[in-house]
Amino acid sequence: MSKPNIFFLTIDSLRADKLFGSSKTSVTPNLDSIIENATYFTQAISSADQTGTSLASIFTAQFPITTGLTHFNFSTKTETYFDIFKQNGYYTCGFFPDHEFFKNLTTNFDEKTLYVYDKIENWKNLYGGIGDSILKKINLLDNHEPWIFPVHIMDLHNPSALPKKFDESKYGENIYERMLSSIDFWIGQFYKNLDSKNTLFVITSDHGAYIPLKQIPSEIPSIQNFMKKGKDTAPFLEPIGIKLFLLLRNLAKKYRTQKLKKELSDIELRSFNVRGNNELFEETIRVPLLFTGLDISGSKIINDLVRHVDIFPTISELTNVNAVDTRTDGRSLVPLFTDQKMDELPAYIETGVTASQFNDKVNPKSTGKIIGLRTSKYKYLKSRDSHENLRILFDLLDDPMETENIYEIKSNIAFDLDKKLSKLMNKPKKQFTSDLSDDEQQKAEDLLKKLGYV
């Protein structure tokens, strides 16, 4: 029996509530159709609110607290499930932005494409050629079966260049949802070009996003054109141009926030938050997760709590790839596909690293400030630094907007969750950190700023 292929798509910054549910205003006929023939998890929880940290958790099936892996210390020596699939005869092909994290991840891949996302004037999206490149690659992979093809797209990440065709209210109430409407076309194209009987198609996200409730027209395309012209006429000004762009963007955001404080509630103001700080609201860690293809048919909506670390153990079982000896914090979710009951396991969560944490250069050993556990009913957060006394407990059922800290009121529940968290913290850790060169440190800090972690 031939081994099935695997197309693994992660959409940067995609929130669960914007792909499925009553608050969704985007127009996504292709995704809607796929969900009708998929197993979809409504309560999938990311391990972190930052790309590298969360994806490392997916690809190793281990929590960040177990591995110590973040966006900036991922080693070429780190074993991932891609190595396991390669050992089992799979052709490994990747399509990622040109971050150092992805360069290290794909060191041992058979084939990889790293598209430009490091320079503002060259940022590309699906409509800028990336979609066609992915389609071409899918068709060429027929010569390398069985294959596993992970793809990470940045279209939804702010700042985004929304195609003019979709900049209408009928495609969504804000730029974020209109962009998702534009992405839907390409997901439909990918799906049509897959042999669904012999291909497992998985869609998820690295983390969610804050979506500002007050929008202004996107000026990213015009800024990109300005940057291109500036680079052509005076290339030595390129670094200054990038810094100027970032400065203006941050100043504009601060001005809008101050102005809107007079008009909006605290919850509405939260939509202007930046990931990687001192919060882990649902907007940033609740992500979509669906499996389709192979023998998966009909729509199955599963509301059980699942974690990033469960994804690849599930893929392994669905494709009959032996990974039993692999160290993992996750488990296969396949029993849920057939309505079997599974005991709930809490999701470990943490904040990412921000540029503001660095006094000078990026420290690859830096970690997020906040750690916690998330169950189907409660979210418990605390400072990673034991000298800081931050403790937060939210009742997610009675207080879904997470407005009331009940740590003092339900200290017994917080104590129980803290004990479970301490067990994770005290597990033996395999360190993957490595020193960065001066050039790598500068690139890492610039990337943090460009992606909004400031």
Description of the structure:
This protein has 454 residues and is α/β, with parallel strands linked by helices. It folds into two domains: 5-211 and 277-341, Alkaline Phosphatase, subunit A; 349-433, Arylsulfatase, C-terminal domain (2-Layer Sandwich), CATH 3.30.1120.10. The chain has 15 helices and twelve strands. The protein has helices at residues 29-35, 51-60, 64-67, 81-87, 100-105, 130-140, 175-192, 220-233, 238-260, 266-269, 282-285, 311-318, 334-337, 411-425, 438-450; strands at 5-11, 38-45, 91-97, 111-115, 147-153, 199-204, 286-293, 300-307, 347-350, 370-374, 378-383, 391-395. The strands form two sheets. Strands 4-3-5-1-6-7-2-8 form an eight-stranded mixed beta sheet, with helices on both faces. It is globular, with a radius of gyration of 21 Å. The N and C termini lie far apart (51 Å). 43% of the residues are buried.
Residue stretches low in confidence (pLDDT < 50, at least 5 long) are 216-224
What is the H-and-E element order? EHEHHHEHEHEHEHHHHEEHHEEEEHH
User: How many beta strands in the DSSP annotation?
Assistant: 12
Oligomer: single chain
Q: What is the C-alpha radius of gyration, as a whole number of Å?
A: 21 Å
Q: In the CATH classification, which architecture of the largest domain applies?
A: 3-Layer(aba) Sandwich
Shape: globular
Instruction: Give the tally of structural domains.
Output: 2
Alpha carbon gap, first and last residue? 51 Å
